[in-house]
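Issue: copy button drops trailing tokens. Both records pasted manually instead:
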Amino acid sequence: MLKKPTYIIALMLSTLCLASFNSAYASAVYSINLKKKLNGTKIYAETSKINAPGSLTVLKLSNFDSREVDCKASFNPRIEQEKSYKRRLQANTNISIRYTTSRTPNRLNIKLVCRAVDEIPAKKD
């Protein structure tokens, strides 16, 4: 009689381990390398991955500076073409940039360059 509950618990534990192992392989597991060049601005950048078909990465930017800031984020998954986004952040605001690839990359490189608007050189004619 005592062997049946032990057997059932062992079976349930092995099933649980197998289910968690399969779900780990089903989710998008890749590393994100974020290189920042902030040029004296007070920008906080954070990345997060969302489980979706392909891969969806969200880059959250927060401007803690009292100035307007222009940011350029370049996403390079190394399996598709590099894509860049430009955003202007007002003082004390947050934005999100969503980047999607059709296939899950092994590594995603993100290059973030930010400058204060008053420090951007004017174009020469």
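Record 2 (pasted manually too):
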Amino acid sequence: MVFFIRLKTGFFETKFCTMSVRDKAIRLYSEDIYDDKETVIRDSEILSISIIHKDKKPTEIEIHATDKIYIGHYIDTKSKDDITNAFLTEFGEKVQME
């Protein structure tokens, strides 16, 4: 299943990404103006995943990997439960809900 997020790339910068969660990996794909880039984060690289639900604000996701922290917001609020279930199914105890 594919989800749409805004991924934080700088202090005040974000970029639109599609994200898939399957086969014990997270794939982030961005269609940048200059190049198409896919980032694959494998289960062995993931330390923890935090899903932060806030009232009247987009749900935030933080993926703590061994080399980087990825922070993003769900764009489609309808898929909030689907993406939460996808993370829980693939990564189980590494997922924390706030």
